[in-house]
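User: Sorry, folds how?
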Amino acid sequence: MTPAPAKKPAERPYHHGDLRRAILTAALDVIAADGPSALSLRDLARRAEVSHAAPAYHFKDRTGLLTAIAAEGFGLLAATLTEATDLKDSGVRYVRFAREHPAHFQVMFSPELLRADDLELTTARTLAGDALRRAVATVQSEELGIDSRLAGVAAWSLAHGFATLLLGHNLDGPVGDRDPEEVFRELAGMLFRRES
């Protein structure tokens, strides 16, 4: 009687429903908890219960995964900024986005982690920038003697700086139990007093 052939160890199945989304979600959880340096495709595959090669099929490598996260983040940011009614509202929405999507926010503004020439990333980044420029256009820049490009830099700096400090818990004392969005609105009002 011939012995039965030895069984290969069972491999984890590749198909997982929406594997791409599962890997992105797991990556966002890791980044939110431990930062982007803690990301490992092998660990993400384990979390998603798929073979260790499966994430590479969708993202190629760690840089591809981080670039996909940044592109998704800029797309979400563009969508929220597009709904803004004026420059202050854009800033409030920017701060809200950072609070609701801290992992995206962290990766989006770490260009050393990303593929700068990725089409999805550059397109989403452009859409977000265009939405901010439209909001800046609501300020009567000419009447105030302000260069509209510099007004955009000032607005972005205020919103981005406030959001970054807030996420890093550097504003816990000054903000206290106040709603951070209302605090930001008040700060923006100090700098951008005249809007259409």
The radius of gyration is 22 Å. DSSP finds eleven helices and no strands in the chain.
